Amino acid sequence: MNTKRFTILHSNDMHGDFLAEMRSGESKMIGGLALLSGYLNKVRQEEENVLFAIAGDMVQGSIIDAEYRGVSTIEIMNYLAPDVATLGNHEFDYGLPHLLWLEKLANFPIVNANLYIKDHHKRLMHPYVILNKAGLDIMFIGIITDKVIDSLRNDESIGSFITLQEAAQEVGRITNAYKNDDIDLTVLLTHIGYDSDCELAAMLDPAWGVDVIIGGHSHTILRKPALINGVLVAQAGVGTDQIGRFDVLVDDDTNRIVEWNWRLIPIDSDLVAADTGLQRYVDSFKDVVDRKYNTILCKFAEKLAHPRREVETPLGNLVADALAAGAGSDVMLMGSGAIRSAELGPIVTLGNFVGCFPFQDTITRFHVTGADLKQMFNHWMRPENRTGEGECYQVNAGVRAVYDEGVRGLQSLSVAGQPVADGKTYTVAMPGYHARSSQKFFAINPDELVRLGPSKVVCTRMQDALEEYFRNNQNVRRGVEGRLVYQ
Known about the structure:
Layout: E1 3-11, H1 33-46, E2 50-55, H2 63-68, H3 71-80, E3 84-86, H4 96-105, E4 110-111, E5 115-117, E6 122-123, E7 128-133, E8 136-144, H5 148-151, E9 158-160, H6 164-176, E10 185-191, H7 194-203, E11 212-215, E12 226-228, E13 231-235, E14 242-251, E15 256-266, H8 276-293, E16 296-299, E17 304-305, H9 314-327, E18 331-335, E19 343-344, E20 347-349, H10 350-356, E21 363-369, H11 370-380, E22 393-395, E23 399-404, E24 409-415, E25 418-419, E26 425-431, H12 432-436, H13 438-442, H14 446-449, E27 456-459, H15 462-472, E28 484-486
Helix pairs in contact: 3-8, 6-7, 9-15
């Protein structure tokens, strides 16, 4: 048997997690790009054949990234020198033209198989790359979540497939083109979430020869990869506190993995020394940002947490209240995922603020019936939407929604202390991103949202409205008040 051994290191959803931190009660530094680079350097020195892959969402989540609109992130990624990356949904946050600019700045291939220029049936980016290691040809194919459709909704020239079935067909189309070539290993580099990765693996024809799916988007921490339909499925959580590591032995004659070992490696100062060169490079960006953003915006009465997007949180409550006041709406639906920090305060600098709220979306107000409002809550509060992959919301004071897990339905919904009446009209406000995708997020299409009257954009930049509210409301506090209840 003619075998070759090599190592695949993989990260996903790094989200601008550039700096190491020390947790309470511990003496070691954890995560950060300098320590991650130190580990990459160590493995590359120890092992002969090493590949490093990134499964999307390199950008967003840090003030350094936001200030430079992703350019700083790509330049820092060039220092890490990944062998291949794929697109995540947040790579589109600065717009498609800017993404194409960032792609040109990258010294590494960024693969995506499913973005098309529709009129000409041409892919927008390279769908795959074939890398040679140890005499083996390894194919990486990029697949992205259907969330990208929302980012490109206003660009009618660009299209994408949106279902897992179509994703599987696209993989088959590419792999079939290489059946007569000696592709020793095929890896799908995806950004569709762990559950969707598992579904996709089950749909793949074994004859296509897909061996591994390395994914992102759902921030899933695994003890070991899933093995589905002969395909290994792995993901490495979120940020830079850990990295996934596959050590594999491949039979060059059969083009199959005959032996593998996967570990989730914690990145800390006990494991490896930091790459001081990269630290200096990151600091060159950080110093500029600190000079600009290290001013105090406000002070909360206490630290406000936002640990999970699927539940009511103190910070989420404050944000929903602030936006509802500005929008003059009965109900504010604030996307939980747009709050990018797990906690904020009590001292909030401008840098803390921008890192927590990097998105510059609009706020739009609609008139809906009580029946519509119940349908919207019933849709997004359902259990299958609260898995880390769905869109969940924070709501303003005066709203109380109770969802019954047993009957899988909304038990009650009240506004301003009164039960919502089906025939009554209510105002509801939401970010423009969610309004444009209301069918998917709320099971109500955009036409239905304006059935009772025209919508109104009440804020053109949500970030501005929040900044003004925070600046003019000192020493605020919030807790979990039972606005969202799951029984």
